[in-house]
Design brief:
Blueprint lengths: L17 H11 L4 H9 L12 H6 L6 H9 L1 H25 L4 H27 L12 H6 L8 H27 L3 H28 L5 H16 L1 E2 L8 E2 L4
Parallel strand pairs: 1-2
Helix pairs in contact: 1-6, 5-6, 6-9, 8-9, 8-10
The chain binds fe (ii) ion (2 copies).
One fe (ii) ion binds next to helix 9.
Length: about 250
């Protein structure tokens, strides 16, 4: 694999104000009062602060290929629509885990918080779409999540551990792609929003990985290494569809 981790998050990012980031999002859509409260509690008005995501670069097996970044820049509408879908799916997956594994208190607590944050992101992306005048479109899921989940073991508690490890990779890749996109897209308010997301998505990565490590009776390093290779293959192999987590655009290779 020849891709190297090159992205860096510099500490000199300009600080967005309420008026140039938060207000356009809030005024574009009838966002609920709850979302406004959560935005403040989440420190959105003071974001994005520089976030160190070096642990994510170390965790992933490869960086996002330049060809994907080029394709994403040219079709931001698809990326934003798929991002909205991903936020909803992230909350849904976590909710499924909460119902399925009710005896794990640490899992209940961490994922309850994660669900609230993912749904807040979902609301924010819908508001962002409204601000951009982007209509909601049906966009079928790409191959990424299913390409990871098909390797999930079928017996417990190993199935749970695999889903948690897969969750860590999905969150880590999301974070890496938000950072990469924020460096190249011309829409500065969108870039600021992506930088804002780094903080929560990097924490989601840490939470999933910590849950997998603490709930497993065996060391997880081998399974992490296995899914690292699977994930990197999905990211660096040709893909006929453009999605937030898709591989190298086949039409550009
Ligand atoms: Fe999210
Ligand atoms: Fe997340």
């Amino acid at each position: 694999m020849s891709f190297q981790i090159k992205h860096t998050v510099e500490g000199n990012m300009s600080q967005p104000t309420l008026s140039d980031v938060c207000q356009p999002l809030l005024s574009a859509n009838p966002v609920s009062d709850l979302a406004k409260v959560d935005l403040d509690e989440d420190n959105f008005v003071h974001q994005p602060k520089a976030v160190d995501i070096s642990a994510i670069y170390a965790f992933l097996g490869c960086a996002t290929p330049k060809a994907w970044l080029m394709a994403a820049q040219h079709d931001l509408a698809t990326i934003i629509q798929d991002h909205a879908n991903c936020e909803k799916k992230a909350a849904g997956t976590a909710m499924n885990l909460i119902f399925r594994y009710q005896s794990y208190a640490s899992l209940q607590q961490k994922l309850a918080q994660l669900i609230r944050e993912e749904m807040l992101h979902y609301e924010q992306v819908m508001a962002l779409m409204a601000r951009r005048g982007q209509a909601w479109q049906h966009l079928p899921a790409g191959r990424y999540a299913s390409g990871l989940l098909k390797h999930k073991r079928t017996y417990e508690p190993e199935a749970m551990i695999d889903v948690l490890i897969i969750g860590a990779f999905i969150e880590a890749r999301s974070c890496e792609r938000f950072a990469a996109l924020s460096e190249v897209i011309e829409d500065e308010s969108l870039a600021k929003y992506y930088r804002y997301l780094l903080k929560s998505e990097s924490r989601h990565f840490e939470d999933y990985l910590a849950l997998a490590a603490t709930l497993s009776s065996q060391p997880i390093a081998e399974r992490v290494a296995f899914f690292r290779n699977v994930e990197a293959e999905l990211i660096t192999s040709p893909d006929d569809e453009l999605r937030f987590h898709s591989g190298v655009p086949s039409w550009l290779s």
